[in-house]
Amino acid sequence: MIEVKNVVKIYKRTKALDNISFNIHEGKITCILGTNGVGKSTILKAISGLVKLDKGEILIDGEAISNKIYDKLAFVPDIDIHFPQLNIKETFEFMSVFYKHWNNEKAYEMLKNFNITDDKKISNLSKGNKARIKIILGFAQESKYILLDEPFSGIDIFKREEIIKMMVRYMTDEQSIVITTHEIPEIEMIVDDVIFINNGKLVCEFNAEEAREKEGMSIVDKMREVYRDE
Ligand SMILES: Nc1ncnc2c1ncn2[C@@H]1O[C@H](COP(=O)(O)OP(=O)(O)OP(=O)(O)O)[C@@H](O)[C@H]1O
């Protein structure tokens, strides 16, 4: 489990996270949602240990973030992946040196499923193919927690659906996926837990299936209801 406890993050004058607390459960797909600039990326960076907290703590399976637990986390940021001059084969080779649990077989299997060859240079890939490669880089690290920041940003509906299918296919029971996205209808059917944030604060958390069955509400319906009052 990931425990986010009373976390505050201030960038110069902006309070990006304002005393926020929630838990991410094992074996679940958790979606962190909110409008632009409410702190979604900052939360993922905080969980990955990439930003220093001003207050509060984050525990990964009961332990504070340290070099020891980095292997448990794979963070896929919303920016272009590194080393644009490398081709895919070289990128995978780099990853295998850098990440101790890197699964090259899985990386190539996913690449084959995406119908991409490993000789393509990263800088020459289309947005959709870059997004596909980023998903492979996240999943082939074999981390327990996979954090995906806006993985569908700027890509077409077909590639979004394909990536979602691939995520479900390659996620194991022991893994958890935490995802931020604005493409809610596409992920509606795969998400377990939903966390809404606004101005760095938690405004609502719920189970997507329960909301559907008990309240007859989709995630988008809930979002409209919650944010209308904010
Ligand atoms: N490095 C930074 N320096 C200063 N302010 C920052 C920095 N990173 C983020 N912020 C500010 O912190 C707030 C939260 O940003 P964050 O990127 O976490 O939001 P977000 O919900 O992911 O937004 P979006 O959906 O637009 O990607 C915003 O007001 C943003 O401008």
TrEMBL record:
<dbReference type="InterPro" id="IPR017871">
    <property type="entry name" value="ABC_transporter-like_CS"/>
</dbReference>
<protein>
    <submittedName>
        <fullName>ABC transporter ATP-binding protein</fullName>
    </submittedName>
</protein>
<keyword id="KW-0067">ATP-binding</keyword>
<dbReference type="InterPro" id="IPR051782">
    <property type="entry name" value="ABC_Transporter_VariousFunc"/>
</dbReference>
<dbReference type="InterPro" id="IPR027417">
    <property type="entry name" value="P-loop_NTPase"/>
</dbReference>
<dbReference type="InterPro" id="IPR003439">
    <property type="entry name" value="ABC_transporter-like_ATP-bd"/>
</dbReference>
<keyword id="KW-0547">Nucleotide-binding</keyword>
<dbReference type="Pfam" id="PF00005">
    <property type="entry name" value="ABC_tran"/>
</dbReference>
<feature type="domain" description="ABC transporter">
    <location>
        <begin position="2"/>
        <end position="224"/>
    </location>
</feature>
<dbReference type="InterPro" id="IPR003593">
    <property type="entry name" value="AAA+_ATPase"/>
</dbReference>
<dbReference type="GO" id="GO:0005524">
    <property type="term" value="F:ATP binding"/>
</dbReference>
<keyword id="KW-0813">Transport</keyword>
